[in-house]
Amino acid sequence: MPVSRRSFLSVLGGGVILAAGGGALFATTRTPTKALAPWAEAGQYADARTFALSHAILAPNPHNLQPWMVSLDGADQVTLYRDPTRALPHTDPYDRQITIGLGCFLEQMRIAATARGIRTETNLVLEGDVVARVTFYDEGIATDPLFAAIPHRRTTKEPFDMAQPVAAADIPRLNPDIAGIRFDGTADSAKVAELRDIAWQAWLIEYETPHTLQESIDVMRLGKAEIEANPDGIDLGGPFLEGLMVAGMLTRDDLGTPGTQSYQAGYDIYQPLFTATPAFVWITSPGNSRTDQIAAGAAWLRLNLGTTAAGMALHPVSQALQEYPEMTAQYDRIHGLLARDGETVQMLGRLGYAAPVPQTPRWSLDAKLRSSV
User: Fold this and answer.
1) What is the DSSP letter of 234?
2) How many domains is the chain partitioned into structurally?
3) What is the pLDDT of residues 12-42, one digit of tens each?
4) How far apart are CA 262 and CA 234, in angstroms?
5) What range defines the domain where residue 129 resides?
6) How far apart are CA 41 and CA 222, in angstroms?
7) Buried (b) or exposed (e) across 315-339, using 16+ Cβ within 10 A?
8) Which residue blocks in the chain are alpha helix, DSSP H?
9) Cα angle 37-108-165, degrees, rounded to a multiple of 5
């Protein structure tokens, strides 16, 4: 019978970390320093393009796959490519979410460039693996106020503080104001309860459908060594989890096997997370073209930075928006509730207040640069 999260903690307290090699020493060596280095390296570049790109690689993206590659072309251009090896064919069969992530990258690059007085002009290509070509113009423009939030932006996959409600009047102030994108949200208890149910039911479908769960498991990085070797995907690290790995209580096979402790932990962690949600926000577009998806990414990035600047927390819960057969009922349900006149709901997020969470691992900028065209 699966044990509870409290039982995991009890076992850990009984010596798992000590068995792993010496208590405090083990704990202090579990931070994946190399994988987190790009956060400190952001902005440490003389060239305006690499300065902007060093911030852009910190943008949010699905499953932290970081599906971008870039080249520096001529004296003033950047070409953004989609890395075709980074995809989620089961949960994102049409690459909609991947494209939104690329839109986040472009907007964060644009914002960062303003800190050097640079105006960027983006020409979307959207042909093959080429996403966009961006030209940098040194015009001494003002810094975008959201630039200051970039180092502090996080995706907060935690229960929110239900003792600190979200004021309904605060939601419109978060509007990212991107042309062609409609932003909305709610703190109304009845509507929040309905959205919680949709989000939870959609999460259950993804978790209990073997091939969609396996897609997530395949990009999990278990422990410091895996995280440092591949600083992308879903990182599971730290002394607690690595102690369980050393003790044989957390394995990749068990994560996908119903009835195991590791599998049960998914329910134990995520159900309280959805329950502790005081508000939701969402982003819709009039259609579902690649251009719409790029714009949705820009809007989501600005929303995420805006919530950070406001001292709030944001967590995307877009399972119900995924376009695969098992999700059809929840997809239709959420579009019936939130979409207007044939819109596509591109992003749904939990909104609230929570304690800060750690940075996520990233590939270095050098790892994302390719030869110029």
Assistant:
1) E
2) 1
3) 333 444 344 455 555 557 799 999 999 999 9
4) 15
5) 35-152
6) 25
7) bbbbbbbbebebbeebbebbbeebe
8) 5-11, 17-19, 23-28, 33-41, 48-56, 96-114, 189-208, 210-218, 224-229, 239-246, 252-255, 261-275, 290-309, 328-338, 365-368
9) 90
- What radius of gyration, in Å, describes the C-alpha atoms of the chain? 21
Amino acid at 194: E
CA-to-CA distance for 284 and 11, rounded, in angstroms? 45
Kindly report, residue by residue over 221-259, the tens digit of the pLDDT. 999 999 999 999 999 888 778 888 888 888 899 999 999
Instruction: For residue 339, list its beta bridge partners.
Output: none
CATH number of the domain where residue 138 is located: 3.40.109.10
pLDDT tens-digit series, residues 132-165: 999 999 999 999 999 999 999 999 999 999 999 9
Fill in the DSSP letter of residue 12: I
Separation between Cα atoms, residue 11 and residue 359, nearest integer Å: 27
Domain-located, residue 75: yes
Instruction: Determine, yes or no, domain membership for 47.
Output: yes
Beta-bridge mates of residue 234: 220
Q: By three-state DSSP, how is residue 341 classified? A: coil
- The answer to the question of residue 80 being in a domain is yes
Residue showing tokens 């605060």: 170
Tell me if 230 sits within 8 A of 221, measured CB to CB: yes
Q: State the pTM of this model.
A: 0.93
CA atoms within 13 A on the CB side of 116: 23
**∠ CA 244-247-252, rounded to 5°:** 60
Q: What is the DSSP letter of 66?
A: -
Residues 6 or more apart whose CB falls under 8 angstroms from that of 163 comprise none
Q: CA 348 to CA 353: how far, in whole Å? A: 17
Q: What does the alpha-carbon distance between residue 77 and residue 306 come to, in Å, rounded to a whole number? A: 28
On whether residue 26 sits in a domain, the answer given is: no
Instruction: Compute the CA torsion angle 269, 275, 280, 286 (nearest 10 deg).
Output: 70
